[in-house]
């Protein structure tokens, strides 16, 4: 088996203020303990662990909506992660951001988008999640900010306080594909439709299969010479196999569906950055979910049961 050798950088983002249930701050170290670095090195990759980030200071930030929880912390994490992902996005490395709740993606995706713009290439985003995370700061009822990062990255209004200025390099909503979603609020549904975001919900997966749901998106990324950021939320998976998440929604991706997505992503050669988010070790069963996330990452980076050579007929 031939595996393309990659320079991989691990960045911990112990973000714990965007979700309603505490515990995700332990996620980065749980993923490390489950053997991520060792698995990637065993597959032939060179891995550097940059440790865990800390949030930037955002003392001047005031919440634009009283319902929002921990908005100043959200701004601090977004600024720190934006700067780090912008820096890494300009280098010949593949960063893996270890979360932390999904609020962290406001920084990782926006930073990767800034780097992509400077490289004169479009950024595409594959959002593997039970939720669309497309609320604005005004539309959210819960005030939990892990439901807003994709709307921010796509340039929806009202987020200027996060970086202290309007987001200059946004992700085109048409370059986003949300796969495996099965819980969308009414306000999000309207915004997703009006902005042209790609959505392959679990009904589509059930009807067409997960490979048929993913392949057209990968073909578009390739045709555009795009960079691809993948954001993998634990709740993309069915909670029967991945219980360590505070936002469980029944009916998620099966073990084999999830691995097939990762295997297809590996075969495409298109992935340039990755989030692993919403792992809450406090809710796990003896490390079951952490090990699954590491196994899935292994499939993304070339681990397979049997190499299938191309044959001509």
From TrEMBL:
GO terms for cellular component: cytoplasm. InterPro entries: Arginase, Ureohydrolase, Ureohydrolase_dom_sf, Ureohydrolase_Mn_BS. GO terms for biological process: arginine metabolic process; urea cycle. Its EC number is 3.5.3.1. It comes from the Bacteria. GO terms for molecular function: arginase activity; manganese ion binding. It catalyses: L-arginine + H2O = urea + L-ornithine. Keywords: Arginine metabolism, Hydrolase, Manganese, Metal-binding. Its cofactor is Mn(2+). Mn(2+) binds at residues 102, 129, 131, 133, 233, 235. This is Arginase. It comes from Roseibium album.
């Amino acid at each position: 088996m031939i595996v393309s050798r990659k320079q991989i950088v691990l960045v911990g983002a112990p973000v714990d203020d965007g979700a309603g249930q505490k515990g995700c701050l332990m996620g980065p170290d749980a993923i490390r303990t489950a053997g991520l670095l060792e698995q990637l090195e065993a597959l032939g990759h060179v891995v550097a662990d940059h440790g865990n980030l800390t949030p930037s200071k955002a003392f001047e930030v005031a919440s634009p909506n009283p319902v929002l929880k921990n908005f100043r912390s959200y701004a601090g994490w977004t600024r720190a992660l934006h700067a780090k992902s912008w820096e890494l996005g300009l280098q010949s490395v593949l960063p893996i951001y270890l979360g932390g709740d999904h609020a962290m993606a406001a920084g990782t995706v926006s930073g990767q988008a800034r780097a992509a713009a400077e490289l004169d290439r479009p950024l595409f985003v594959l959002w593997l999640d039970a939720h669309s995370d497309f609320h604005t700061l005004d539309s959210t009822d819960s005030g939990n900010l892990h439901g807003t990062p994709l709307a921010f990255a796509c340039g929806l209004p009202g987020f200027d306080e996060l970086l202290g200025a309007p987001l200059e390099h946004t992700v085109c909503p048409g370059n986003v594909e949300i796969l495996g979603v099965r819980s969308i609020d009414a306000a999000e549904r309207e915004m997703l439709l009006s902005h042209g975001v790609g959505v392959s919900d679990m009904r589509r997966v059930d009807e067409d299969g997960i490979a048929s749901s993913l392949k057209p998106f990968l073909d578009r990324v390739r045709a555009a010479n795009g960079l691809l950021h993948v954001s993998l939320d634990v709740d993309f998976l069915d909670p029967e196999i991945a219980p360590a998440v505070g936002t469980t929604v029944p009916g998620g991706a099966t073990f084999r569906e999830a691995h097939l997505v990762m295997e297809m992503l590996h075969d495409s050669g298109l992935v340039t950055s990755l989030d692993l988010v919403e792992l809450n070790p406090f809710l796990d069963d003896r490390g079951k979910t952490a090990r699954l996330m590491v196994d899935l990452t292994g499939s993304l980076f070339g681990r397979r049961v049997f190499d299938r050579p191309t044959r001509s007929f």
